Amino acid sequence: MAVLVRDGVALDYEETGHGGPPIVLVHGAFCDRSDVGALVEHYRSSHRVVAVDLRGHGRSDAPVQNYPVDVFAGDVAWLCAQLGVHRPVVIGHSLGGQVALQLAADHPDLPAAVVALDSTIVPPPGAADVLAPVTAAIAGPNHVGALQQFMAMTMLPTDERTRAAGVLDRLAAVPRHVVMSTWADGLLGWDSAAAAAACRTPLLYLDHGSPNCDLVRLAQLCPQLAVGRTVGAGHWALLEVPDQVTAMIDRFMVTSLGAPVGGREGGV
Hints:
CATH class: Alpha Beta
Helix content: 40-55%
Number of helices: 11
CATH architecture: 3-Layer(aba) Sandwich
Strand order of the largest sheet: 1-2-4-3-5-6-7-8
Number of domains: 1
Distance between the termini: 30 Å
Structural class: alpha/beta
Largest sheet: 8 strands, mixed
Radius of gyration: 17 Å
Shape: globular
């Protein structure tokens, strides 16, 4: 674990492993880098891996400010520059996938490829209307309870209860101002279509069964899109079925970049 300070904001991160291409891991909203721990463990033996706590999350600072996707993406790009991370594969879960895609749009020469795990990118029509009651509840006096209720809806009955409880428990640690702005500016206010259209790197979207993405429209905006689908797990597939997730990412890196994965060249 280490810290770098950007304009007075401490960004906490973990770096391990060696080898290329480097892997940069970005967690989802109201979570922290522990949620991408399975990816750290999978890639650390063959790749340089950097996992960051986004500002406002985990051990990073949480200044009173707005938290739009481009600010998160700017932090990740800055961190890569400070650490000398060149042409990484940027893998993000949920909000982290949005951050990765925005990074590719804003800094086209930085990432070699992007992976979005069940991220809200060009959502189906009417998604904002469906989320309106959640938005109102989060703005109310019990924002933690409202957020926990929403997150519980993203879990399946088959999800392991201890892991699910851990996700819900950590929500209480996120400052209210971070929750409010990340929800409004990061999740609802982000122009995902513009970011998708500007992306020129290989993009893998792993669908975990949540209604977060209009895949047909995303493919029209981003023709280099590849799509995978996990089985038997919902939004938290990285916690529930990490082997499925890593197998598809490995194959994507081989086919899109020709990159050896875990000592294997040309296949997984």
